Amino acid sequence: MAQLEVDLVAADGKVWSGAARLVSAPAADGDIGILAGHTPILSVLRPGSVRVEPAGGGATLSWRVDGGFLSVDDDQVTVVVDAATADPGRAGH
């Protein structure tokens, strides 16, 4: 099954990097879900939660973000935010 390569980066450094099955994020005009094969996109993010379902299974990872942007190109997802904190009750690091 195809997968995404994801980099989540905050102003103070890399937050998470790895392979994922799904990424969802709070785009400016509504939540967006990214699966492998998604068309290229550049989107502004509003405050909310970025969630990643790892490719190998396991618990969904979740971080609260204050805003930033998300870029998708050739199954490479880059999320750049000012700050990211693990959502309570979720493994975020």
TrEMBL record:
Cellular localization per UniProt: Cell membrane
Entry keyword annotation includes Membrane: yes
GO molecular function: ATP binding; proton-transporting ATP synthase activity, rotational mechanism
Chief location: membrane
InterPro entries for the chain: ATP_synth_F1_dsu/esu, ATP_synth_F1_dsu/esu_N, ATPsynth_dsu/esu_N
Membrane topology value: Peripheral membrane protein
GO cellular component, one term: proton-transporting ATP synthase complex
Stretches assigned to the ATP synthase F1 complex delta/epsilon subunit N-terminal domain: 4-84
Keyword terms: ATP synthesis, Cell membrane, CF(1), Hydrogen ion transport, Ion transport, Membrane, Transport
Quaternary structure annotation from Swiss-Prot or TrEMBL: F-type ATPases have 2 components, CF(1) - the catalytic core - and CF(0) - the membrane proton channel. CF(1) has five subunits: alpha(3), beta(3), gamma(1), delta(1), epsilon(1). CF(0) has three main subunits: a, b and c.
Family note: Belongs to the ATPase epsilon chain family.
PANTHER family, per database record: ATP SYNTHASE DELTA/EPSILON CHAIN (PTHR13822), ATP SYNTHASE EPSILON CHAIN, CHLOROPLASTIC (PTHR13822:SF10)
Function: Produces ATP from ADP in the presence of a proton gradient across the membrane.
Protein name as annotated: ATP synthase epsilon chain
Gene behind the chain: atpC
